[in-house]
Design goal:
- The protein has one domain: Rossmann fold.
- About 55% of the residues lie in helices and about 15% in strands.
- The protein contains 9 helices and 5 strands.
- It has a 5-stranded parallel β-sheet with strand order 3-2-1-4-5.
- The longest helix has 12 residues.
């Protein structure tokens, strides 16, 4: 099953153990989801990585392991893949930063894996939160 991963669940996974990280851990074993994202995902993560280092519950070694676990599961898609859907995505997304994820979801007709409540509220049929994705993994 194809899912677009947004930065929200990656940040959550890097900060503490919880459902977002559990999804990545279980998917590493069961391979139920094919995760994709915008090529800018890790650029966005990198810009705020100093903050992650300050607030994470993980040691540096654990954080490195978690980051590798996540990064190895996400295929990054170039903007050219979904740029024809960006205008529509900007209209639908609650924030401009969400537009690449929404555009990719529209282009490939798949759902978004996100813990962003605003995005879920705006696009309830397009967004699956960590609990919903975990339920699919455990079904």
């Amino acid at each position: 099953m194809l899912r677009v991963v947004d930065a929200n669940v990656v940040f959550s996974s890097l900060i503490r153990k919880g459902k977002p990280l559990r999804v990545f851990e279980l998917n590493d074993i069961f391979k139920r989801f094919e995760f994709i994202s915008s090529e800018y995902l890790f650029t966005e993560i990198g810009r705020r990585f100093d903050k992650v280092l300050k607030i994470t519950d993980f040691s540096k070694e654990e954080l490195s392991h978690v980051f590798s676990l996540i990064k190895n599961q996400i295929n990054l898609m170039p903007t050219e893949t979904f740029e024809d859907k960006l205008d529509e995505a900007i209209e639908k997304a609650p924030h401009d930063k969400d537009a690449p994820y929404v555009a990719l979801s529209l282009k490939l007709d798949c759902k978004i894996f996100s813990g962003d409540k605003g995005l879920k509220k705006t696009l309830p049929n397009k967004v699956e939160n960590p609990s919903e994705v975990l339920d699919i993994l455990l079904a």
